């Protein structure tokens, strides 16, 4: 699954509004809402991470780090025009950053974004 597939394949509107409401509550420091937000979004975020990181343990670690950052940055994310899309795009950027740090991966990551053959 690519990031474009994951972001384009959004859950039904009712699921989106529920997750957006949870994100608003997380932004207010609601721990229970964070647990519910994790339950709703973790499979999607982990799918994005696994699409870019082959190592299962590293993917699990990065998924946890992403959710920790969600907790820290929820107030800023809720102000975004599309808060859930910003969360998924943040997950994708986190994967790209981590891949760039992996041995031998920087050339392939840079090459993927190059316009040259």
UniProtKB/TrEMBL annotation:
<protein>
    <recommendedName>
        <fullName>RNA polymerase sigma-70 region 2 domain-containing protein</fullName>
    </recommendedName>
</protein>
<dbReference type="GO" id="GO:0003700">
    <property type="term" value="F:DNA-binding transcription factor activity"/>
</dbReference>
<dbReference type="InterPro" id="IPR013325">
    <property type="entry name" value="RNA_pol_sigma_r2"/>
</dbReference>
<dbReference type="GO" id="GO:0006352">
    <property type="term" value="P:DNA-templated transcription initiation"/>
</dbReference>
């Amino acid at each position: 699954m690519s990031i474009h597939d994951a972001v384009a394949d959004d859950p039904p509107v009712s699921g989106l509004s529920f997750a957006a409401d949870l994100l608003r509550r997380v932004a207010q420091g609601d721990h229970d809402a964070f647990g519910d937000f994790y339950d709703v979004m973790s499979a999607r975020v982990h799918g994005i991470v696994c699409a870019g990181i082959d190592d299962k343990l590293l993917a699990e670690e990065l998924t946890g780090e992403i959710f920790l950052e969600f907790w820290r940055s929820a107030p800023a994310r809720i102000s975004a025009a599309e808060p859930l899309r910003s969360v998924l795009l943040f997950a994708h950027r986190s994967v790209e950053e981590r891949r760039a740090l992996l041995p031998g991966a920087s050339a392939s990551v840079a090459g993927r974004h190059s316009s040259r053959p």
